[in-house]
Design brief:
mainly alpha; two-stranded antiparallel ribbon
Length: about 400
């Protein structure tokens, strides 16, 4: 009798344990994520700016790749930013591509007398980079207006073929027409082509450029990086470090290089400006207790944006270059450095009043919403709008 009772008790215990496992009651609930105080404060400031007349005027007047690069961060925000007054401008620029098509292909010879050339683009390579941003702006407008327009997507196969042709030309292969590969200062064709492809969702079009970009991470026998970066230009971002963020998942990629080797002048003050703060993220942190500014109109905040698009934690930044003494293990909060430079209103609220600070605010908030490396690059996707203001 005792054995029977014991057996029944064991069965009851086993059944109870099975029920607990089935219902998941044995799991300890995950603690709720603590809200990010700074993200909340910046969200309020961002909402004010995005609803301002000043922002509307800036969007309407935006022309350069620099301005459009900053505007690309709006893809992370759930909202309507391009209205009917912007559509005419966007479609006008997009339609420029019509003038450089010849027999179903993009023609360098037709570009010379095209409206695109009259606007100042050096060649098709330069034009397509700007076109890729404008295309994404238009897609964001269409999504907000619930409009389906595939007319411009018909050009994507032509663009892919052209990118492949220029990539082959850069690799030293003969091509039928010699393309113009000159692009904006601070960029080169080898980084413009992959960024253009990424912005248009085009894959496997630039194998040579991809190889060149990854070659920056090669080291000599002593473990030193062989290559320096390209022209140090934070004025409109720099092509090489920005493009390099596309290769973060490659085995050859090196975050150490992106922190320390972003320009030809990593340890000198050329042109009467502190280039260290612009071209080298580690050296930027050496200016931690100084004003985040530059003597030549450059924008060091772009270094902050570049760090974030590489997935580098700019709130708790650890330098790659050797440090000694009491600063050996120091962590730098460059987000705080930037925040301390923002204006505040009479109530102590941060004021965002330009596209650059807008982009930094969006990138920071996007990170708190789970975007590991917020970037202006990439084809527009409605699912990117993780920020609800």
């Amino acid at each position: 009798m005792k054995k029977r009772i014991t057996r029944i008790i064991c069965l009851l215990i086993t059944a109870a344990m099975a029920l607990i496992v089935a219902t998941g009651c044995e799991k300890t609930p995950e603690p709720a994520r603590e809200p990010d105080k700074l993200a909340a404060e910046l969200s309020a400031s961002l909402k004010t700016y995005l609803n301002s007349q000043e922002f509307s005027e800036v969007v309407q007047s935006a022309r350069s790749a620099r301005e459009r690069t900053e505007l690309m961060y709006l893809k992370y925000v759930d909202g309507v930013f391009y209205g009917t007054d912007n559509v005419v401008q966007l479609k006008t620029y997009l339609n420029f591509i019509n003038y450089i098509v010849d027999n179903g292909a993009l023609s360098d010879s037709k570009f010379v007398s095209s409206p695109a050339a009259e606007q100042g683009w050096y060649g098709i390579t330069d034009f397509l980079y700007g076109w890729s941003y404008i295309y994404n702006q238009y897609l964001q407008y269409c999504a907000a207006a619930n409009i389906t327009d595939t007319s411009f997507s018909t050009y994507l196969p032509m663009i892919k073929k052209y990118l492949q042709n220029v990539d082959s030309f850069l690799a030293g292969n003969p091509v039928e027409e010699e393309p113009v590969v000159k692009v904006a200062w601070g960029y080169s064709a080898t980084n413009v082509l992959p960024m253009t492809a990424a912005n248009l969702g085009i894959e496997n079009a630039t194998p040579h450029c991809d190889e060149v970009m990854l070659s920056y991470y090669e080291k000599d026998g002593d473990g030193n990086f062989i290559k320096e970066g390209d022209t140090p230009d934070w004025v409109g971002f720099s092509g090489r470090p920005m493009c390099a963020s596309l290769y973060r998942n490659s085995e050859k990629y090196s975050a150490a290089y992106e922190k320390t080797m972003q320009g030809y002048f990593p340890f000198t003050d050329g042109w009467d400006q502190p280039l260290d703060e612009m071209v080298n993220l580690d050296r930027l942190c050496d200016y931690y207790n100084q004003t985040l500014s530059s003597g030549a109109g450059a924008v060091p905040e772009y270094a902050l944006l570049t760090g974030m698009m590489h997935g580098i934690n700019m709130e708790s930044y650890v330098k790659e270059s050797p440090a000694t003494g009491e600063n050996a293990d120091e962590r730098y909060n460059v987000i705080t450095l930037w925040r301390n430079g923002l204006q505040t209103d009479e109530n102590g609220n941060y004021i965002i009043n330009n596209l650059t600070d807008m982009a930094v605010a969006i990138a920071y908030i996007a990170q708190t919403e789970g975007v590991s490396a917020p970037s202006p690059l990439g084809a527009y996707n409605q699912n990117s709008a993780v920020i609800k203001l």
